[in-house]
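note to self — DONT lose this again. spent like an hour looking for the file last time. sequence + predicted structure for the chain T wanted, 188 res
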Amino acid sequence: MWTIPNIITIFRVLLIPVFVTVYFLDWKWAHELGAFIFWLAAITDWFDGYLARRLQQSSPFGAFLDPVADKLIVATALLMITHSYSSIWITVPAIILLVREIYVSALREWMSGIGASSLVKVSFIGKAKTMAQMLALIGLLSGLEYFMGFPIYWVTLGKILLYFAAVLSIWSMVVYTSAAWKTLLQQK
């Protein structure tokens, strides 16, 4: 259980309360620091997977905890941006992303239980959705449009990427469902 990749994954889970606390501090750069902590968590997701493969330290515990850690921090960030922006234009795509995460997790669990998990393995569309979602969340969490007087438009880019991620989310949900549909219909 105490492999380097698992320790990094546990660290990612422990970052969640730090991320939330920092983000809501009454401090000028709280949102930017919160976005940085979220970015750090996102990077550790890639890093723990890389190390698990590279060091041959994959484990059942890591296979369970890694996606759980991802879902927890993303769900937390989605809730935080809906709170911060209080806009239907942010809330609707955030809900789409949350619904997709729950649905695809349940579908994968079901398919794994019947020995057909290979039908719903991670696809390119799912990876593209994750990348767009993470970048959108970093931009929206940071609240930055200008940095040191220079326009960077992180929030604007974050909004665009949030919608792009929502579209990819629906698309990937349809792809995973289509791949599993025949097998699901055969179950009684």
